[in-house]
Amino acid sequence: MATLDVTPDGDRMNVTVRGELDLGSRRLLPGLHDALTRSGSGIDLHLDAVGFCDCSGLGMLLDLRTRALAQGKTITVRSGGTAVGRLLDLTGTRELFEDAERRPGPSADPVPVTPSAAAAPSTWPAAS
What we know:
The protein is 31% helix and 28% strand. By secondary structure, it is an alpha/beta fold. It is globular and about 30 Å long. The two termini are 26 Å apart.
């Protein structure tokens, strides 16, 4: 059973999700919608403690993103475990939840991984 912890951070809301994102986790939507409404610019998701995420969980995230865009806000996944990262990679949806300001543009040189870059707030395990 998934749970939410919501904390304000400036004009955004930090939301930490724990548990499994599956069909049963749709019960989290009212809390996520409330966090989105109370935010000025959107939600930063921390999904490190999500051990399982299926297509229902992804659908929930995509629904939340659609609602955010309709309000002129964003949903950013700041960190996630292997299950979430793999699903986002396999479905080609990872970039939908990335921070556009932190993502290099098409003409940008690749950023080398350094110890300081590895400690950046957005952390993802490599997909396998």
